[in-house]
Write a structure and sequence with these properties.
The complex is a heterotrimer of chains A (502), B (119) and C (486).
Chain A (H helix, E strand, L loop, with lengths): L17 H10 L3 E12 L36 E2 H13 L3 E2 L2 E2 L1 E5 L9 E5 L5 E7 L6 E11 L3 E7 L2 E5 L6 E7 L6 H18 L11 E11 L9 E6 L2 H20 L8 E5 L4 E4 L12 E2 L6 E2 L2 H9 L5 H10 L5 H8 L2 H14 L2 H19 L10 H12 L5 H14 L3 H8 L7 H14 L1 H8 L5 H13 L5 H13 L1
Parallel strand pairs in A: 13-14
Antiparallel strand pairs in A: 1-11, 1-12, 3-7, 4-17, 5-6, 5-16, 7-8, 8-11, 9-10, 12-13, 14-15
Helix pairs in contact in A: 3-4, 6-7, 8-9, 8-10, 10-11, 13-15, 13-16, 15-16
Chain B lengths: L11 H10 L6 H17 L1 H4 L29 E2 L24 E4 L11
Chain C lengths: L11 H10 L4 H19 L2 E3 L2 H13 L11 E5 L26 H8 L3 E6 L33 H8 L5 E6 L5 H7 L2 E4 L19 E6 L2 H11 L17 H11 L5 E5 L9 H16 L3 E5 L7 H16 L18 H12 L2 H14 L4 H24 L4 E5 L15 H5 L6 H6 L3 E9 L2 E8 L5 H15 L4
Parallel strand pairs in C: 2-3, 2-4, 7-8, 7-9
Antiparallel strand pairs in C: 1-3, 4-6, 5-6, 5-10, 9-11, 10-11
The chains are: A alpha+beta (502), B mainly alpha (119), C alpha/beta (486).
């Protein structure tokens, strides 16, 4: 019952065995990667950053638009309170200093899905600075340089109109935070772990759903390499278009190895932006123009500075939910779970919530952990549905755990009961009665099954009686088959052993 | 010529670079005219450009600067209630867009520009 | 009719009262306005759009409606063409918004309609409000009712001329560096620029966001106050609008007219009476000062030492913001598109090259330059600091007990068409006395103070932030003093 659940992104990469890692090390030729990550996260707000439009992923194009996010002449932005609250929560969860005064700025560039010809973001006065995220408890610490608030652009669609590009502005103005790390990450694997930890923290905080498939978490990386042990930074490249955790790891390994190869061959790394092409497994340089990087940032004159009082910031800090590290520690120390269980369960806030509810109902944390990590997560993996949609209520599962604990059902029968609970939605106790799955402990019934089994196998019965103890198991199996799995195993075993002693 | 100290004159190449940045196609005559006029106008701005930088002033828009003197405008940012509804459009994009086939804004295919962004 | 005239001798408040009581019909007022609009427009090119049927329908709806129809019941009003309206086009005097009808309305337009005002048309303006003569309109220059060979001032030249020619009793304009007060001065009407944040900018097509403000134009100080009272006040859709009570502005104007200027201290900045001031303008200003003194005001010398920085500061900050604000006109979502079929870049550059006029391009170039890498600190940052110094001058003056400051509105009377178009900086100097108020965010009003060589001269009253009541009181006192009252 301890089938290992999948933990998104936290484990080693798919198909990346230790052999591959060793091979990669060879290709690094004694160089060490230095990686910084810029992550854009969509905030889980009900409306857009600067206007009241809702954003629903998958809505008909250009149906979630208003004067503001269309960039109509004369329209003005207003700042979404909920977005600020979630951004502050995320920044505090990443141990940043949230500033009492931050300033919105315009980043000017032309693009058809950027309605105003500028993006409202924050530049030299960001919301928060100076945080950190640990890759594991007590493990490597990656410093967070800044967290700032900004708006998303719309979407350019290249396959919708013959010979033309189509623009959908539903996403224009959706609130984002950008989380910029210091270049503290030292391997592609660690980059993946960083992202998994970041996702975990943001999900815990309720700041974002972090769904990469829907584009609510997007990653750019700065990569350079240097001789291992060197303190100097090499020339970096920026790698974009990293659409999944697997891509991040693959692309960064590729880029670090490429740079190591260039340097080892006596060449120089060119400062440039590269796009990851997942299909070909290469990061190729983007064509870029010099002036495209002159964004002409200046303070957004349509928005006064965002002012938060020290009291408001403290109140937000006090209201932070328990973060995964603290929760895992509590699961270990207060509920007595093994470290493995605690880590697996806290990898996802909803999983941990489910477990805690169940543990509270049963009073048996280990049994609750086993069921959650086993049958319940197996169900989420098989169905691809979130744990919140797990059909039986936790009360039913708690009842099943109690039936096992008081030996009403065997652990084998319990699995059958579980399957029927999913199928029928009935209470486990009703299923046990209806299906006759309760353990039989009546001495007479058990004795008659044992007798039947002995009669059916006279030769083995003789050997058993002559002291061949290993045949106890053989007859136990037969009794279980005869009883349809309901025979109490302890009593049955005793009855069979009595034959030996005769 | 294009000395970032700003003292030297703005040259033709600089005018062309700025025009490109502003997505303005300029005719030869306009390039010449603007080269002359930009220099002329900015010459009048030298007095402020040459002034001693004021350490107390920061980069905030004046209206919201930290320091007194008090400005007009809102004293600080008001945050919008998340339940506030968007200001509705009385006509959809089909009424004002230059090209809106299938509910999408259509533009010439992105070519040289298509990778030329970094949001 | 295209010469100077007044729509109606009655104050706007009395007109609205007459409509509310049924003594006068909104339709009759609208018909008067429309009857004058055609000939005035033909002679002076004042309007860019009007829809007589819709105007009459709105008036009829008011007449048919249930009683008490608001403080501007039936009052015909003209709007500068950079205020978004959902019925008439909003072109900003530009080709790049030709025939563009906004799918939403500006807050000020909604407030006017709610107060019972009847919109009669959209007025001509310098393209995107960039100019001081209304010669930069893509739809031809507006002309001055006092002399059609001269400009009405700008950029709200069409609104000023519409009031001056008697087409409407009041109009809305917008200011960035003097675009209401300067045309009011050159066209012989009253023009108000409120405190920054006093009036919502939502739906005012942006030129320079930190300077822009909607203003009112009318024949009298009290009328300008009556319209401002309706449009002023905090707006949840404009984050820069201020939550400061508007107060009784018409009452303040009445107090100024009835009680005179006893006890009022008027600051007279010597920097505004130096070289470059036309003789006739100087003489009328001296007359105005004498009249105010006679009405009981104490005149006091003050110094605004950074006044000379105003024009260069303005011409760094305003173009910088404009270069960003005008990036949205790209032919993608609205407005016309010119596509040479050379790809997206070609479409952008062609649309903007053909859509914008020379002055707009010049300012986009200037603004892009001062924000670009390597120049930001030298120009944009320093201009922000200069702006602080200019604001400090006013703060010092008002802090020292001055209630209001008097200056000329413009150094000259209306100039001839084409006289300054070849020299941008000379044109920019028309803003020398007005731009300081925009940079400092304080309110200002231009009041007619007489004529020089047959052309109107305006005097400017400036007051402290949100002190519109003081400003109207002093302006009405000046107005009455010059009219020979006491």
């Amino acid at each position: 019952m301890s089938r290992a659940p999948r933990v998104d992104g936290a484990g080693p990469g798919i198909g990346d065995g230790t052999a591959a890692a060793a091979e990669s090390e060879d290709r690094m030729r004694g160089y060490e990667p230095v990686i910084g990550l810029e992550v854009h996260v969509q905030l889980a707000t009900t409306s857009k950053m600067f206007c009241g439009d809702r954003y629903d992923f998958g809505a008909e194009p250009n149906t979630r638009i208003c004067p503001v996010c269309l960039g109509l002449p004369g329209a003005l932005p207003t700042v979404n309170r909920e977005a600020v609250e979630l951004a502050v929560r995320a920044a505090l969860g990443l141990h940043c200093t949230v500033h009492e005064r931050s300033v919105f700025a315009r980043k000017n560039y032309f693009y058809p899905d950027l309605p105003k010809g500028y993006q409202i973001t924050q530049f030299d006065r960001p919301l928060a600075t100076g945080g950190h995220l640990d890759l594991a408890e007590g493990g490597q610490r990656v410093r967070i340089r800044r967290v700032h608030v900004e708006e998303d652009a719309g979407r350019s669609l290249h396959d919708r109109l013959e010979g033309r590009t189509a623009v959908d502005l539903n996403r224009a103005g959706v609130p984002l935070i950008e989380i910029v790390s210091e270049p503290d990450v030292r391997s592609a694997e660690d980059a993946r772990v960083y992202l998994a930890r970041l996702k975990q923290v943001l999900e815990y905080l309720g700041a974002s759903d972090c769904d990469m498939e829907k584009g609510s978490l997007r990653v750019d990386a700065n990569v350079s390499v240097r001789p291992a042990g060197s303190a100097q930074l090499g020339t970096r490249t920026e790698v974009k278009n990293l659409n999944s955790f697997a891509h991040v790891e693959h692309a960064l390994r590729y880029e670090a190895e490429r740079q190591a190869g260039v340097l080892a061959g006596g060449g120089a790394v060119v400062h440039e932006t590269r796009l990851w092409d997942a299909a070909k497994g290469v990061a190729r340089p983007m064509r870029g123009k010099e002036e495209s990087h002159d964004y002409r940032y200046f303070p957004e004159p349509d928005l006064p500075p965002l002012v938060l009082t020290a009291r408001e910031i403290e109140a937000a800090r006090t209201a932070l939910p328990e973060l995964p590290e603290a929760r895992a520690r509590r699961f270990r120390e207060e509920l007595g779970l093994p470290a493995y269980d605690a880590d697996v369960l806290t990898a996802n806030r909803e999983h941990a919530d489910f477990f805690e509810t169940l543990a509270g109902l049963t009073g048996d944390a280990k049994a609750a952990s086993n069921w959650t990590m086993g049958e319940v997560l197996a169900w989420t993996n098989e169905t691809g549905r979130p744990i919140a949609e797990f059909p039986p209520p936790p009360e039913h599962l708690a009842e099943l755990i109690a039936l096992v604990a008081d030996a009403t059902v065997s652990s084998t029968a319990a699995r059958d009961v579980f399957a029927l609970m999913l199928e029928r939605g009935e209470r486990p106790r009703d299923i046990v009665v209806a299906e006759g799955l309760a353990q039989v402990r009546d001495e007479g019934t058990l004795a008659s099954w044992v007798a039947q089994a002995l009669d059916a196998h006279p030769q083995e019965a003789a050997r058993l009686r002559s002291g061949e103890v290993k045949l106890v198991g053989f007859f136990m199996g037969h009794v279980m088959r005869l009883s349809g799995g309901t025979a109490d195993p302890r009593q049955t075993s005793e009855l069979v052993r009595q034959e030996v002693e005769r | 010529m294009d000395d970032p100290s700003g003292r030297a004159a703005i040259g033709r190449a600089e005018v062309l670079r700025i025009a490109r940045l502003a997505r303005l196609r300029l005719g030869d005559e306009e390039v010449e005219l603007f080269t002359r006029q930009l220099n002329d106008i900015l010459a009048h701005a030298q007095e402020i450009a040459d002034a001693e930088p004021d350490a107390s002033a920061d980069a905030e828009p004046y209206a919201f600067a930290d320091e007194e003197p008090a400005r007009g405008g809102a004293a600080s940012l008001r945050l919008r209630d998340p339940s506030a509804q968007p200001d509705p459009l009385v006509a959809g994009p089909e009424a004002f867009a230059p090209a809106f086939p299938d509910g999408l804004f259509a533009v010439p295919r992105l070519e040289a520009m298509d990778e030329d962004r970094s949001p | 009719m295209s010469g100077p005239a007044r729509f109606d001798p009655r104050p706007i408040g009395d007109l609205a009262q007459a409509v509310r009581t049924g003594e006068e019909s909104a339709r009759a007022l609208a018909e008067t306005a429309l009857a004058r609009l055609g000939p005035a427009d033909e002679a002076l090119n004042i309007f860019l759009a009007s829809d007589p049927d819709a105007t009459l329908a709105a008036a009829d709806a008011l007449d048919a409606g249930p009683g008490a129809a608001g403080p501007l019941a039936g009052v015909p009003i003209a709007l500068k063409d950079n205020l978004a309206t959902a019925d008439l086009p909003t072109t900003c005097g530009s080709r790049i918004l030709e025939n563009f009808v906004s799918p939403y309305e500006a807050t000020v337009v909604r407030r006017l309609r709610a107060a019972g005002a009847v919109i009669v048309g959209k007025t001509n303006m310098d393209e995107f409000a960039m100019g001081s003569s209304t010669e930069n309109s893509a739809y031809g220059p507006a002309l001055n009712p006092h002399d059609p060979a001269r400009v009405p001032g700008g950029s709200s030249g069409g609104s000023a001329a519409a009031v001056a020619a008697g087409v409407v009793p009041a109009a809305l304009g917008s200011e960035t560096g003097g675009s209401v007060r300067q045309p009011a001065s050159l066209s012989g009407v009253v023009g108000v620029k409120p405190t920054y944040g006093r009036v919502s900018r939502y739906g005012l097509v942006a030129f320079a966001s930190s300077l822009d403000q909607v203003g009112t134009l009318a024949n009298t100080v009290a009328d300008a106050a009556a319209v401002l009272e309706v449009i002023a006040g905090v707006d949840p859709l404009d984050s820069t609008s201020a939550d400061v009570p508007v107060g009784d502005l018409v009452g303040a104007a009445r107090a100024g007219a009835e009680e005179g200027l006893r006890g009022v201290v008027i600051g007279v900045p010597r920097e505004c009476f130096g070289e470059g001031l036309e003789g006739g303008v100087r003489a009328r200003c001296e007359g105005a000062l004498e009249a105010m003194a006679a009405a009981g005001a104490e005149l006091r010398d003050v110094s605004l030492p950074h006044t000379a920085l105003a024009v260069p500061t303005y011409y760094v900050i305003a173009p910088a913001e404009a270069s960003s604000n005008l990036a949205r006109y790209d032919g993608v979502r609205y407005g016309p598109r010119w596509d040479p079929e050379t790809g997206l870049l070609g479409m952008y550059e062609e649309t903007r090259a053909r859509g914008f006029g020379a002055e707009v391009k010049r300012r986009i170039m200037l603004g892009t330059y001062v924000l670009s890498a390597g120049y930001y600190d030298r120009y944009y940052s320093r201009a922000q600091q200069a702006r602080m110094r200019i604001a400090s001058d006013f703060r010092a003056a008002f802090g020292a007990g001055v209630d209001a400051i008097f200056t000329p509105t413009s150094p000259t009377t209306a100039f001839g068409l084409g006289e300054r178009t070849g020299d941008p900086y000379r044109m920019y100097l028309a803003d020398v006395f007005t731009a300081t108020a925009n940079l400092a965010g304080i309110p200002g009003i231009s009041v007619p103070i007489g004529f020089a060589d047959g052309l109107p001269v305006g005097g400017q009253i400036l007051a402290d932030h949100f002190a519109e009541a003081t400003m109207f009181r002093v302006a009405a006192g000046l107005e009455r003093a010059l009219a020979g009252g006491s």
